[in-house]
Amino acid sequence: MTNQYIENLLFYFVVSPVIIAVILYLSGANRFTRIVALLAQSTLFYFTLQNFLYVSHTNNVISSPVGGYYGFMGIVLVADMLSSMFIMLTAFIFLIATFYSFSANHSPLFWLLKFLWQASLIGIFLSGDFFNIFVLTEIATIVVTVLIMYERKNRNMYDGMIYLVISTIIVNFFVFGVGYLYRMTGTLDISLVSERVRYLYTSDLILPYALIMTFVGLKCALMPMYSWLPKAHGSKGAPSSVSAILSGLHIKSGLYLFLRFSDVFQNGGIDGSQIFLVLGIITALAGVIFAVSQTDIKLMLAYSTIAQVGLILVGLSIGDIDGYNYVGGLFHIANHAIFKACLFLGAGIISHYYHTRESTQIRGVFFEMPAISIAMILALLGIIGTPLFNGSISKYFLMSGTGWDTNIILNIVNLGTIIICIKFSAIFFGKKPNIRKKPLDIMSHGVILLLGVMCFLMGILGIQTINFLFGYSVYVNIAGYTEKAIIFFVSLMAGYVIYKAFLTKEGPAMKWIRTSEMGFRGMCFSMVAFFAFILIAVGFYN
Amino acid sequence: MNSIELISIIVFFLGLYGLLTNRNIVKTIVFASMMEVGIIMFWLSIGFTEGMVAPIVASMFEVDNYQVYISDPLPQALMITAIVIGISITAIKTIMFITLYRKFKTTDWDIAKIKSKEVSKEAIQKG
Question: What are φ and ψ of residue A296, in 5° steps?
Fold first, then answer.
């Protein structure tokens, strides 16, 4: 394998899903389409793995100019360790989703959109210039809008409309910010911009920073702007595989852009890490409160995604770039993709089986579907950070070396996550319902079990996984880990007590939180407020 | 700061103001397009100052024995892309609005929200 080979490969990572999408669309809804889709996904995963292994082994940053225009003349695709990891994760989650929806006879439109979505996500992760990110984000937005209203029977136009309008308004902020950067630096290439911003005044960069970070904040569903996420993730018309990809991957594109853009602006002297630390903490706390008050199983998972993103953001913002918190944040991205995909796919099967999504009406899943229940319980144990599971490793690194105040808040967030999971796990137990058995679908059960087992394996082999995925060699301090385990078991008991004491019956406050919902103007206002907050806070710090 | 740039920023924030103050779905679609127009004007103002010539033919680099500067062609090329994307997205929004109107019989965001809640409540109970 040579650099040249990988350079060519990068181009095909973006283009080949588009070509396959068209082929699948033309071939119609039959078994052939699904087999081709599966083969294509497997091949793509194989090549992304190959790319990742090469990049991580040689530690090269491979940049491939599209169309052969060298020297910052044209569009560049860049694969470094981080973006290679992200495209490998993309290919993996899409492969899982394809296995999951193999036996459901979806229309050719579904496959077309799914592959286009994959192409645009891989494009965002590989893109080396600002304008490409804009174009690919727009494509992804349109595709997601159609996919969350895919099931015609119970689709909700309002959810799709809100998602589309809000996402396209926020992209305007991004293009505006990029325009400022272009005016000052004369280029759109991210690496070149991050070199040239060194020679600019920091005060000139505040406005583009605020504009671009508002865009990133909405993509990550940070606190005032979270409102589109539960609509998109928990929409009634969205197939479960779409929800799983949305929660596991799509939201990570926002975090990825956050990492990339903060690097750029850090060179220019703007350090927003304190601001995003605070925002991450607020997001995590609020996400937990919202999630606890939900009764719809998909919405519980969706709001818990907001909390986990806040947690990841805290990890990425604390300390310096080589710190353990940063590694913990990165590892939590991968972990969250795995266990959230598992939970959403499992929730899809359960809600299909029980014909409802109300957690109060679903009981006795463990007796009906033992395999799925075991996988989902493994994923739940991962998300709450049970010792030896993947979440515990990433949360251990995420919290290591934080001050006592941050540490306490993060432990409260974890306690909240535990309560959510206890509330969620009530569906597994209880009386067995009287429902006619449906035939077992081996493929979808298989992938959910695989994801559940991965949650456990990535915990046991946590250090090795971090070394493999991110190239950091870290070690776990046994004393610290034991302390964390003790805190975990104490908060597990506390969570159980709190759940039994206060949360088994819905109080008026919970009902208010559950039913209150931000309207369109509220969302626009929250965007403006976020923008103003970033502008003022960055101006104050610098 | 030249005048085009100033106007473009004003147009952008006028669009934002319109989004904050309107409940009508069609008007919000229009105001979102207005923000886009502001951005396109802003980008076009980047590569151009008074007295520049268009980057078309090499012989126009000197006009009447005066050295003139050519304007930057890249923003214009990019903005064509942005315009195309903007048009297609406005089209999708409009089509979706028509479908939403047929179902909910309203042009108001807040009423649509209430009606969609009722619809989703039924959908949850049905599964």
Answer: -80, 125
Helix, coil or strand: residue B102 = helix
* B66 burial type by CB count under 10 A (0-12 exposed, 13-18 middle, 19+ buried): exposed
Cα–Cα distance measured from residue A281 to residue A291, given in angstroms and rounded to the nearest whole number: 15
* Euclidean distance between CA atoms B120 and A141, whole angstroms: 23
Selecting from A134, A179, A357 the residue whose C-beta is nearest the C-beta of B46 gives: A179
Determine, yes or no, domain membership for B17: yes
Domain that holds residue B77: 3-49+68-126
Q: Average pLDDT, stretch A245-252?
A: 92
pLDDT of A220 > 70? The answer is yes
Question: Residue B39: closest CA among chain A residues belongs to which residue?
Answer: A176
Pair A189, A128: CB distance under 8 Å: yes
Residue B60 inside a domain? The answer is no
Of residues A236, A352, A519, nearest to B123 (C-beta): A236
- Give the model confidence (pLDDT) of A84-97 as tens digits: 999 999 999 999 99
Write down the number of H helices and E strands in chain B. Answer: 4, 2
* A93-97, A155-159, B96-100: segment of lowest average pLDDT: A155-159
Give CA separation, A496 vs A337, A492, A501, A502, in Å: 26, 6, 8, 10
Tokens 């965002």 correspond to A124
Give residue B61's pLDDT.
Answer: 57
Count Cβ–Cβ pairs < 8 Å, chain A vs chain B.
114
CB contact under 8 A, B113 and A236: no
Q: What is the per-residue pLDDT for A319? A: 67
Distance CA A389, CA A465 (A): 12
Query: A246, A232 in Cβ contact below 8 A?
Result: yes
Rounded to 5 degrees, φ, ψ at A358 are: -75, 125
Radius of gyration of chain B (CA): 22
- In this prediction, what percent of chain A has a pLDDT beyond 70? 98
- Torsions phi, psi of A378, nearest 5? -60, -45
Does residue B61 lie within any of the structural domains?
no
- Mean pLDDT, residues A477-496: 89
Distances (CA, A) of A208 to A389, A490, B77: 41, 45, 21
Distance from the B69 Cα atom to the nearest Cα atom in chain A, whole angstroms: 16
Q: Under a CB-based contact definition with an 8 Å cutoff, are residues A53 and A88 in contact?
A: no
Check if the beta carbon of residue A173 is closer than 8 Å to that of residue A211: yes
Q: Enumerate long-range contacts of B103-109, CB under 8 Å, 24 or more apart.
A: B103/A157, B104/A157, B104/A158, B107/B24, B107/B25, B107/B26, B108/B23, B108/B24, B108/B25, B109/A519, B109/A520, B109/A521, B109/B23, B109/B24, B109/B25, B109/B28
- Please say if the pLDDT value at position B27 is more than 80: yes
Q: What are phi and psi of A320, to 5 degrees?
A: -85, 175
Position A427 scores a pLDDT of 87
Residue B44 falls inside a structural domain: yes
CA gap A330, A182 in Å, rounded: 30
Q: Let me know: does A158 contact A234? Beta carbons within 8 Å.
A: no
Q: Going by C-beta distance under 8 Å and a sequence separation of 6 or more, which residues neighbour residue B72?
A: B46, B47, B48, B55
Give me the CATH number covering residue B86.
1.10.287.3510
pLDDT tens profile B43-75: 988 877 777 777 766 555 555 666 677 778 888
Q: Do A169 and B35 touch (CB under 8 A)?
A: yes
Do residues A157 and A127 lie in contact, with contact meaning Cβ atoms separated by under 8 Å?
Answer: no
Domain count, chain B: 1
